[in-house]
Protein 1
Amino acid sequence: MKKLLKIGLLSALLAVVMASCNDDDDARVVYTSYATVIFTDNRPVLRTDKGNYLRLTNGADVAPHVEDGDRVLALYFIEGDVVDNSGSVGDYPAYLLSAPKLLCKEPLYQSELNNKPEEDEKVGYDPVRIRNGNWWFGGKYLNVIFDYWRRFGSTDTHFINLVVDDVQGNTGVADDGKVVVWLRHNSIDDKPNMENHQNFTTKTGFVSFDLLPLLGDRTLQAIEEGQLELVLKWTDFKTPFSGETEEHSAEGKFIPWGNTMAAPSETVPGDGSQSESQYD
């Protein structure tokens, strides 16, 4: 079933920051973290992608919509001293300002899609853009911030997926070298060209992909000590709205909960001009 994910992340988060600053005379450091929801004693706890735990002092009030395992973009400040700081991670009491949900998916496999042509077509091959290095590993996830094009007034839900290339000479498992994955987009025929591009606008999407399935059947210890060399590929317009496309790629090493790639700065990427985004 199609899900409709509506995000006005930047403007909403900035509004909350400004409100919290106006309501409190004391200067407070506001943090932004990608995090996963874990329920403990029927209360949500957030595990950030850096491995820290946020014990929410107001979580039931601010995040009633979240469920166990959800991905969120948490905006918060620390309310007191760290409860536990063993090793490189900590356990913190945190006051949650907002926690919009993020789309989270598992990778698909090209070998399986080849046996289901309708599914492969639904996944799509339309242009998508990853700018300014807006992809990184966090926790057990590959996080991607991407741009896509939408016709003014369109309400169609686009599709975004990560597909493991396990047919073009690749195995799709970490034990056999680099794993090639494609960020694929289905625009549902929302395709700009030189004649109609004035009817389109650029939108920004946020998605996380769970990479643990790519590590194969291993113990938790082996997974945490494991390392996955990943090549991320995507297709974008060669020149704006020309109809010609070209491949782009980037590489990185994935180590669950001990990543060699850091997330972007503690601000939400984007220029603030994006309105609601709709994708699945």
Protein 2
Amino acid sequence: MFGRKRLKNERKIYTSGYHPENDKDKLLSFSVKEAYKTVRTNIVLSLVKDGCKIITFTSPIPSEGKSTTVSNIAVSLSKAFYKVLLIDCDLLKPRLHKTFKIKNHSGISNVLSKLSTFEESVQVLDEYSGLHILTAGIAVPNSSEMLGSDRMKKTLTELSEKYDYILLDTPPINVISDGLSLSKISDGVVVVVRQDHSTHDELKHAINSLKFISAKILGIVFNGAEAQSQKSRYGKSPKYRKYGRYSSYSYASTYGDKERKTGFEDDVIVVDNSIEESNK
């Protein structure tokens, strides 16, 4: 599991594409980059198998910073000279094309539907050598069946011959089962939670769901945490309305604070927001 690291929360820092204006911002920017490097190092050391490693990134509920985290880890791995493929597996609410400001005309759903080939769909970023991105692609009504299909397994097996790491950005597992089906065929799972967002019960439910399918949990990234925080609550968290077949994430009004315990504190690394914040 990841070791604990304390950083001061500063949500105006962006790990990629951000140019600090003063010495304080430069120091904080450096700290955030180092935090992602620490996560990268722990991931590398946690998976000692030969060949490609497939890692699923998920969260208990929406808006935990999952896409932010997986994007920065992908960039960090590529800067360490690994060949990385980042796949947006949230077919109902894709995010990565917005994060990296690229097109989403063709992606993993197109490849699995045989509407286009991988070579036609994958995108290479000039500014990040070694990082390739496969967006979500066209909207589909049967995302769970598609991502849990034998064709998806075969596709990942074939792509494993080309990359050192394949990172999967998946929907929140307490909301939709896509992340669970992909976790079963991954070499490891990273769970992202945000301070003052998820409750302890929501995180516990997510962990138990992963344990039930015997997924290998590599660790928990505690996102947006204050330095030396002694808070005993995650705080307010938005509920989730019905997840329709074609609908995107829909939020209801927030509900009151819920009690939580800090039992996961020793198994997390505290990081901060980055790319995703710059697109808001």
Protein 3
Amino acid sequence: MLNVGSENFSLSRRTTAPGRLATIFSGTGAEARSLAVSQQRQVFYTAIPSGKFVRVVCAIDLRSDSPQESIYAGGGSLPSGTGDDGLAAESRLVNPLSLAVDPESNLYIAEAGDARTNPGRIRRVNSGQIITTIATGLAFPVGVGVGPGGQVYAALSASQQVVRITSTGNVTVVAGSSNEQSCDKVSLPTCGDGGSALQSYLNIPGSTQLRNITIAVDGNGVYLPDDDFRRVRYINVTGTATTIAGAVTSAGTINTIAGNGASRPFDNVPATLSELQRP
């Protein structure tokens, strides 16, 4: 945990001074990644627990003085099906790669699936730990985020697109061209910056890499770490322009708000002139 405040912060009987980094829990699972934290101080992450061979969603409760790691979703031994409408810990997950939590403590899981019989899905686990699927047939989702109004966004690796998922399960592309290809920075150095988000090209990690990304959502759009493009881009999904870090993103367009794709660090300069390494 990094304390970015101006006072000491205590959690699970550990006190961290301002500006200090401290370990508050050491899990036993391998390849832990994709951290998400609820307002109730529950910490979720994906990992491969000791003695298992599949990635699951683990959880620890930092309200406890002695937090314990447990399987929160996945790891079930179902003969068939996904375990929807049952307990999340007894469900089946195939390559859960990214997590997000909404203000009501619902956990969203980007389940990438595989190239054979398991399509990509976005799963939701409610506060009662019941799991459901809110969208399926997705092209290897590796990132998920939740907006203020409850709309869910997912970054799709296989189609190089970002989609919006409504509460009724409708899926709409908000960024990425219909060509479903990553950006060729030689022929298109800007990858479509400043133009229509639906005609842009993205650099979401490929399905063979099994890497997740963390996307963020506000009331106007989506913050996308664009990996090999070495930039953070903003997708404006509203009808009016918005300005972030000095960069203007017009309605329905995509634009870089941090990073410039260069190979050297540039500190103390405008955000769009700085260097990022796999944001």
